[in-house]
Each structure stands twice: as C-alpha cells, then as structure tokens.
Amino acid sequence: MKKFIITGLALLIVGLASTKVWAEETDSSVPSNINAIALGNALTQEQKQQTLSSLGQVKEVPIYTTDGNDLMKYISKTDFNANWQVFSSVHLETKAKNSGIEVEIATPSNITSITADQYKNAAQTAGITDAKITVASVIPIDGSGALAGVYKIVEEAGGTVDSTRTQAAQQEMQVLNEITNENQNVEGYSDEKLNAAQEEAKELLAKAASEGQKINQAVVTEAVNTALENQGLNNILTKDQINQLIELLTMLNNKNIFDKLSQEMNLSDIKNQLEAKSQGLWAKIQQFFSNIWQSIQSLFGSSTETSESTSSN
Fold first, then answer.
1. Per residue in 204-261, pLDDT tens?
2. Which domain holds residue 119?
3. CB atoms within 10 A of CB 67
4. Within 13 Å of residue 193, how many CA atoms lie on the same side as its CB?
5. Per-residue model confidence as pLDDT tens digits over 106-161
6. Cβ-count burial of 18 within 10 angstroms (0-12 exposed, 13-18 middle, 19+ buried)?
7. C-alpha closest to that of 217 among 48, 225, 150
8. Number of structural domains, the chain?
C-alpha cells in the first residue's frame, strides 16, 4: 500500500514538469462579452455624469442601478437594508481569454476600504477570470456598492452568480483588509504583496486540485508559506495573521473554490503568470509538491498525531 501511494505521488510530481491545457470550454457562468456600468442609486444627475466620466465611458453601454437590495443579495454584511444609499459605482468589461483581471480605482481618495488588489481577488474567487474593472465614487465610501455592482452586471448580462462564491469572496476581502489595517506602519509590508501572495496561494491550490491532489490543512499551510515567502512576507506577518490566511484558504477549499478555479483557469497560463511574478518560481512550485510528498512519506514512519483546525469564518 505504501509503495502504491508513494509511486502515485511520484508520478504526480514528475507530471509538474510539463504543462496541461484545459479545453476552451469552462464551467464559468460569466458571459464573455460584457461591457456595462452599474451606478449607485444615491447619485444625483450631476453626480451620475461625474461618475460616468470617472469610469471612462466612451460609448453607449448598458447602465444598471445598484441599491440596498443588491447589497443584501450579494454582500454578506448584516447591517445593509433595502433603503441603503449606494454611491460607489463600477464599469465591468470582459476581455479576451487568459487576459486576467485588471482593476483600476479611478477615484482612489474616495474608495476608503477596498483596495484594487482586494477587488481583484474577490472577483477571481467569485468566478470572474478575464476582465477590466473600473471603480469610482463621488464621495468617500468603503466601495462595497461597486463590488455588488460587478455581480449585478454579470447577472443582468445573462450570467449566474454563485452566492456561495460571492460570500466566500466577501470573507476573503474582510480578512485581507483586516491584515492590511494591522500592518499599516510595518516596514516591508504592502497590501499589494499580501494580495499577490493570496492570489499565488490560490493558484497553487487550483493547480493541486487540477492534478487530483487531496487538499488538506498540510497542503494549504504549505501553499500559504510558499506564497508568503515568495512575496517576502513570511517574516513580517504574525503567526496569528498567517493562521488567518490558512483558515481563509481552508474555508475556500471547503466550498470547492479551488476545484472551480482549476476548471476556469488555464494551467499553462497559471505557470506563465507565476513565472512572471518571480524568476524560477515554477521550480519552487515543484519543490512545494515535493515537500508535500515527503511529508506524506514521513507519516508512514511516524506515530505523531495531527489535527486540522476548523475555520472560524
């Protein structure tokens, strides 16, 4: 039995030397030809024109209105109600396959809580893979309305939005935002690095899922540690903050997010993206899976008991 498992894992790791390309069809429920805007319901006519200008509207596109009902539907916060005033707005335009997600906050001084990288991670977790997202607000606001607007545009365009994924994306955003707030004055830290590490960890786990790897806490922990090290954050984040990331990714795995991402993302594209972020990173990814193999090997010769922590999210 031991020989069978180890041999199987060896074949899995050897397979990482080559790339696999998914079929053109994916399980994504996001239409490939979206170009639309969602404006907050609280805007005056003058503010609407100002917002449209900030969003870079250059031609006639569908314009929808985001209101309190949309916040209640798409964003998992308990204090929203049907009468909520929404100011932050968004322009969503899908791009060619494998273009990735680009986010621009056109009015950075007025989006006070959610960063561009956090929007990007949330969109990816929710199932959006190739798009340009532009966010704007005429007054200082946290930016939740714009995120709800993204999801509303997808549904208005004929797509479907999985509430499990949007809720997971919201939890992800909250955790990353809290960690960023806790490290505002810490040398060597940046929100960009944290979100890059989160994206990288998700890509590692999507890669593992695509290869049939069982994703348990040890695999999640290895992915988090690898991604943080590659972004230079492994000695900057506290142990508690690292555990928050592990719990977050464990929660995403429990919701089958990585299985879905592995179907939506092109594997060869993941490899290229990771290599672009850091020279020789693909070799580190191979080492990541090698470490998992060695850990499993050690289980056969050790009676050490391990337990998986449960997510508090």
1. 999 998 888 899 999 999 999 999 999 999 999 999 999 999 999 999 999 998 888 8
2. 35-161
3. 20
4. 18
5. 999 999 989 999 899 888 888 888 999 999 999 999 999 999 999 999 999 998 88
6. exposed
7. 225
8. 2
* Residues forming beta bridges with residue 39, ordered by sequence position: 65
The verdict on residue 177 lying in a domain is no
In angstroms, rounded to a whole number, what is the distance separating the alpha carbons of residues 63 and 192?
31
Residues 6+ positions from 252 with CB-CB distance below 8 Å: 125, 168, 172, 202, 205, 258
Which residue is associated with the tokens 């939506």? 264
Say whether both 73 and 155 belong to one domain: yes
Name which of 137, 76, 70, 126 is nearest 101 in CA terms.
126
Any domain includes 307: no
Domain-ending residue, one of 140, 161, 182: 161
Could you tell me which residues come within 8 angstroms of residue 1 by beta carbon, excluding any fewer than 6 positions away? Answer: none
* 149 and 51 co-located in one domain: yes
Domain shared by 49 and 75, yes or no: yes
Residues 102, 133: contact at Cβ < 8 Å? Answer: yes
Give the position of tokens 């209640």.
72
Is 133 a member of any domain?
A: yes
Q: Are residues 127 and 217 in the same domain?
A: no
Name which of 22, 14, 13, 17 is nearest 261 in CA terms: 22
Name the residue with tokens 């449209």: 52
What does the alpha-carbon distance between residue 57 and residue 268 come to, in Å, rounded to a whole number? 34
Residue 157, domain member (yes or no): yes
